Amino acid sequence: MDDEPPVDAGGTTDRAATARTAGGPGGASVRAGEPAGLPAPSRRFLARAALVTAVLSVAGSLLGLVRDQALARLFGAGSDTDAFLVAWTVPEFAATLLIEDGLAFALIPAFSVALARRSRGAAGDPVRALVAGTLPRLSLAFVAVGVLVVLLAPPLVEVLAPGLPDPRLAVDCTRLTATCAVSFGLAGYCSAALRAHRRFTAPAAIYVAYNVGIVAGMFVLAGRWGVRSAAVGVAVGGCLMVAVQLPSLLGQLRRRPTGASAEAPAEAPSGAGAEPRPLGAAVVASVLLFAVCRQSQVLVERFLASNLPSGAISHLNYAQKVAQMPMILSLMLCTVTFPVVARALAEGDTERARGRVERDLALAACVVLLGTATVVACAPQIIGLLFQRGAFTAADTAATAGVMRVYALGLLGQTLVGALVRSYFSGARPSWYPFGAMAVGIAVTAWLGALGVGRWGVYGIAAANAAGITVTALVLLAGMGPRSVPIRVRPVLHELSRPLRAALAAALAGTLAADRCDGPLAGLAAGALTVTAVFVLLGRALDAQGVTAALRSVRSATRRLPYVRSR
């Protein structure tokens, strides 16, 4: 099994530590797929890994837009689409719990501890022992949950959307999508294990495979099964998510530990525990409760929207899917560096973990704020280009664009929650504070949504979502310290204020530029270019760390960019 090309070992620098790298001056040459030692990764490695992850994630997101376009073109924004989107709650929940947040937050730190013990020469192979002790039990749990969803589909639909005129179609689609409880669980397990081993290509490709399955299912079966074809595509796509990762994971598990004795345990370095911290029930419970609570925002929205006129759920769905793209891109770096933070804590290096988290927050905030300004400035043009065809009318475009602009106000909060919560769970120990913070945000969302839906409809629901997730981000920031990686909250907030000011000015300038153009394509091009130029210039003028780091990362990622193998 070939390794990925060599990269140097260092760390993305900030203004206070521009010369410090995790691997020493200049960085030591290591291999990204090294199974035993896994030295501290370099800025160039992280930039390239983030680039590969971003490219494949963007490809998956674009295919997701193709999926949504196909759904809009084939079935419009009416009752059939609403029924499928109620069933779509199952894969949305499963993705959050088993791939994106829940399982990854529990498994990546556990694999990082096992890799750290392996590198210290622990007896046997701690990584294989972890797989043998967790995968069979988790697989049984996945199957049990899938069967439960099939059996309880009718009352589940009634709870999710009590206002649906005919729930039978939603029940059928829910039962078809229940298979993702198993396929997403196995896909999430593979992704966590591979990312802990610093293998990012296969995990990043899963949504490409997933959306290919859904799009193929719709176009092949739409004439016969109607919107149920999309639910069949969910089942097929879930299986493809496992298939694209399994060869790479098996290759990693077959490797023999190298670089340290696999027989006699060595003394642990200072600050790192010599004994393993097993993947206990408390760790899994704290992570899953947070993930369930976070995904409950979708349940609150669809519950409130189910009593609005037909198409309201569809407008919320399309707006949210497009608006979330900047947030997804902004968290690509955090996805890559989460195993780095977990490994640093497993080795007792809190300072390295703190510096990494602070730099990630600055960079992720700049990326999402640039995207937020673009979404606000160009919302009608984006929705018109993506969806206005077939059964999706100009009225649907106007409604969806308005909702998307409101959603965009919460994108910084979404990104901060996604970045901060990783630091709470990176120590491979239970942390209940994120669940409490998310519960506060959900309460705010439900309260404001209930107050606003009667007067403002879908706009009130979207505003409640933005307010609730922003409150959660602030509560998580307030709790940083002994419970998590101890970042410096006040300097971080001061740093975040710089790109926020740049984004406000860029959004205003971009809106003016986009509105002066006649066609949607010309308006999008003018608005996006104006937003980017204003944001970068103001970000540099305000000395925003994230803007400088983003430009540096782009140069690092594209300089002598090698090919990257998936296994």
Topology:
Elements: E1 6-8, E2 29-31, H1 43-75, H2 79-87, H3 89-100, H4 102-119, H5 126-151, H6 153-160, H7 168-177, H8 180-196, H9 201-204, H10 206-225, H11 228-243, H12 246-254, H13 281-305, H14 312-323, H15 325-330, H16 332-346, H17 350-387, H18 394-408, H19 411-425, H20 433-456, H21 458-478, H22 489-515, H23 520-541, H24 545-558
Summarize the structure.
The protein is built from 24 helices and 2 strands. It has 567 residues and is mainly alpha-helical.
Walk me through what this model shows:
The structure is a single chain. The chain is an all-alpha fold and 567 residues long. The protein has helices at 43-75, 79-87, 89-100, 102-119, 126-151, 153-160, 168-177, 180-196, 201-204, 206-225, 228-243, 246-254, 281-305, 312-323, 325-330, 332-346, 350-387, 394-408, 411-425, 433-456, 458-478, 489-515, 520-541, 545-558, and strands spanning 6-8, 29-31. It has a two-stranded antiparallel sheet. The longest helix has 38 residues, at 350-387. The N and C termini lie close together (7 Å).
